[in-house]
Amino acid sequence: MASISLSGVIKDYGVVRAIHGVDLEIADGEFVAFVGPSGCGKSTLLRMIAGLEEISAGTIRIGGKIVNSVPPRERDVAMVFQDYALYPHMTVSQNIGFGLKMRGVPPDEINSRTREAAQTLQIEPLLERRPSELSGGQRQRVAMGRAIVRRPQVFLFDEPLSNLDAKLRVEMRTQIKRLHALFGRTTVYVTHDQVEALTLADRAVILKDGRLIQQGSPIELYEQPQSRFVAEFIGSPQMNMLPGIVEGDGRSVNIAGRSELLLEPIDAPRGQQILVGIRPEGFHLTDKEAGMPAAVEVVEPLGSDTMAICKIGNVTITVRLSPEHRVRTGDTLPLAIDLRKVSVFDAQSGKRI
Ligand SMILES: Nc1ncnc2c1ncn2[C@@H]1O[C@H](COP(=O)(O)OP(=O)(O)O)[C@@H](O)[C@H]1O
Ligand SMILES: [Mg+2]
Predict the structure, then answer these.
(1) pLDDT at residue 316 tops 90
(2) Which of 202, 228, 254 is the last residue of a domain?
(3) Which of 92, 101, 104, 233 is the most exposed, fewest CB within 10 Å of its CB?
(4) Nearest ligand to the C-alpha of residue 209?
C-alpha cells in the first residue's frame, strides 16, 4: 500500500506554466478525484504521478520514497486512460496479461491472474475476443482488467468513462467504486465531471488554471465552498447567486431589495457588495405576503423533484421543489430563503466571507 505526496510540484511546457506549485497529501488507500474544467492541469498532474511526464520542480513521493526520476514501470502504479489504449491485434486475454508477460511472470500465473481479473470485472466470456469485437463499455472493462491484474500499489484513472453513454457511465462508476472497496488501493481519478468526482471519491481536489483551489470531502465542498468558482462548479443545478449589500453589524443583509438576517454574522462592513449563494434546495415556499416574489419561467418536472427556473428582479434562479407543488410557467412563487444554508461571497473577489 502507498501514500502519495506532492510538494511544490511545478510543470512548465516551454514558457507556459501548466502547474503552479501544487502541494497535496493522499493517504494510503484513499480515493481522491482531481476535478476541474478542461485544460486546468488534471492530466498533467496525474501523468507526473505516473512518471509519464517529467516534473519541472518540486517533489513527488509514493510510499514515502521520492520518485522524481523513477521510470513509470518501477513506480508500481497502473493507469487507465479515456481511450482504453488496447492492442488491437491481441485478444482480451492477451491484452490483460501483457503487462505481466513483459515482467517475466510465468505463463501459468498469468493465466490464473487474467482469469481472476476477468471474473472480477465480469468479462470472462470475452477473453478470446479482440477489441474490435467489443462494445465501449466492454473495452473499458478490459482496460481496467489490465490495470488490476498487475496488483499495483496505486491506481490512476484519466477520465476513463468519458467515451461511454450516460447509462454505462453510471454502471461503470459503481464498478470502479466496488473495485476500490475490494482492493482498498490508493486511487487518483481525474474527471471534468463534478458529479463523477463527488459520487466516487472520499476527497475531491478542485483545480483551476494549474492551481489547487480547494479540497475536501464531497459534503464539505458542497456546503462550504470557499469561493464563487467552487460554489458554481460543484452541484447541479448550480448554486444561485443573488446580489446583496451588507446593511449593518454583519448580520443584516439586503438581498434582492429585502432585508434578511443571516444566522451567522459575516465579517464585512456596512455597504459591502456581496453575492449570496443559495442552493436550489435552499428555498422554500412561504406566505404570499412574506415571500420574495419569483416569476416562474420554465418548469422541469424530474419526477423526484421539480425544478422551477424563475426570475427574481433580473436575476435568474433555479428552485428545487417537491413534485406535489404543481407549479406552472407564469406563476409567481412566494419564496423564503433557508438562511442556514447560504454561502456569502465578496462580490468583487469571489472569496467566501
Ligand atoms: N505536451 C504539452 N505541451 C504543451 N502544453 C501542454 C501539453 N500538455 C498539456 N499542455 C497544456 O497544459 C495545460 C493543462 O493541460 P491538461 O493537464 O491536459 O489539462 P486537463 O487534463 O485538466 O484538461 C493546458 O493548458 C494544456 O494546453
Ligand atoms: Mg485531461
Answers:
(1) yes
(2) 228
(3) 104
(4) 1
Number of the ligand 1 atom closest to the C-alpha atom of 14: 4
Nearest protein CA to atom 5 of ligand 1, as residue: 13
Ligand 1: residues whose CB is within 6 Å? 13, 16, 18, 36, 38-44
Residue 293 sits in the same domain as residue 219: no
Domain extent at residue 29: 4-228
User: Which of the listed residues 13, 35, 45, 81 should we mutate to test ligand 1's pocket, taking the one with most ligand atoms within 8 A of CB?
Assistant: 13
Residue 100 sits in the same domain as residue 14? yes
Task: Report CA(344)–ligand 1 centroid distance (Å).
Answer: 33
Distance from the CA of 256 to the center of ligand 2, in angstroms? Answer: 40
Q: Which helix (H) or strand (E) holds 12?
A: strand 4-13
Q: How far apart are CA 218 and CA 200, in angstroms?
A: 9
What's the gap in Å between 332 CA and the centre of ligand 1? 47
Q: What is the tens place of the pLDDT at every residue in 22-78?
A: 999 999 999 999 999 999 999 999 999 999 999 999 999 999 999 999 999 899 999
38 CA to middle of ligand 2, Å?
A: 7
Domain count, the chain: 2
Ligand index nearest the alpha carbon of residue 205: 1
Task: Report the Cα 206 to chain-centroid distance in Å.
Answer: 8
The answer to whether residue 351 is domain-embedded is: no
User: What is the spatial distance between Cα 55 and Cα 63, in angstroms, rounded to a whole number?
Assistant: 18
Verify that 246 and 216 share a domain, yes or no.
no
Q: What are phi and psi of 36, to 5 degrees?
A: 170, 170
DSSP codes of every residue in 219-247: HHHHH--SBHHHHHHSSSSPPEEEEEEEE
CATH of the domain at 280: 2.40.50.140
> Is residue 210 located within the same domain as residue 284?
no
Q: What is the pLDDT of residues 160-185, one digit of tens each?
A: 998 888 888 998 899 899 999 999 99
- Supply angle C-alpha 174, 179, 180, rounded to 5: 100
